[in-house]
Amino acid sequence: MALLETHEIEVFYGDFQAVFGIDVSVEEGETVAIIGANGAGKSSFLNALAGITPSKPDAITLDGKPVGGTPAYEMVKKGIALVPEGRKLYPSLTVEENLLIGADGKTVDRGWNLDEIYRLFPILKERAKQMSTTLSGGQQQQVSIGRALMANPKVLLCDEISLGLAPTIVKDVYAAVKEIQARGTTVLLVEQDLSAALGAADRVYCFMEGRVTLTGRPDELTKDQIQHAYFGMSDA
Ligand SMILES: Nc1ncnc2c1ncn2[C@@H]1O[C@H](COP(=O)(O)OP(=O)(O)OP(=O)(O)O)[C@@H](O)[C@H]1O
């Protein structure tokens, strides 16, 4: 049994359907990436897992138990924590205060605390008392990841953590994802930066127009397969 599974999950905004019956499974300790173009439904899917958009109870199982439709503040206590698109830090709080807020979602100790976050992201220790808004984009992304880890999740959800960052900074952020996985945390990420996603993930799912068009291990997939799955076209 996989740690996290979706079963024919659907996401609606009023009458508009963004996700059409998607099955995804994530094994404990895996890093899985969802790739796809703008509007493919990646964030809608991730937000359903985080309890931000509604879903049916059986549509999401964690450790085999239905958790779909659980509100976001409860979902994090069940073990699913989100690094949201755009970081969404609290601008009036310091770096450390932002991190400490993440600990409100902690119900089990899986080894993540302030010391461990500062070990993963040493610059944040130096900047601990600064307002989060004074940090660079990459450092703010570190705070957002650290805040989610402070909840000690079973599964860390990351939404477009490369967004707006220079390529060298993206590399650093993804090196941290590898480290997070190495420390035993399961990661499910949504990413438009293909090389970042393929470099970090054990398995990928490609979404197009709210459906899965391709799945596999990065080393098994060809460029043409990915292009076809991404845009519905190929070189041929
Ligand atoms: N709050 C909302 N209300 C109505 N429609 C929405 C809402 N959020 C997303 N959508 C629509 O749902 C579809 C999927 O959007 P979603 O943001 O999930 O895609 P995405 O793959 O994450 O793309 P992006 O990378 O641009 O965020 C799009 O057609 C989008 O316009």
TrEMBL record:
KW ATP-binding (keyword) present? yes
What keywords are annotated for this sequence in UniProt? Amino-acid transport, ATP-binding, Nucleotide-binding, Transport
Fetch the SUPFAM superfamilies from UniProt.
Answer: P-loop containing nucleoside triphosphate hydrolases
Highest taxon of the lineage: Bacteria
The record's similarity note reads: Belongs to the ABC transporter superfamily.
Q: Note whether ATP-binding occurs among the keywords.
A: yes
Name its GO BP terms in alphabetical order: L-amino acid transport
Name this protein carries in UniProt: ABC transporter ATP-binding protein
Which residues belong to any copy of the ABC transporter domain?
4-234
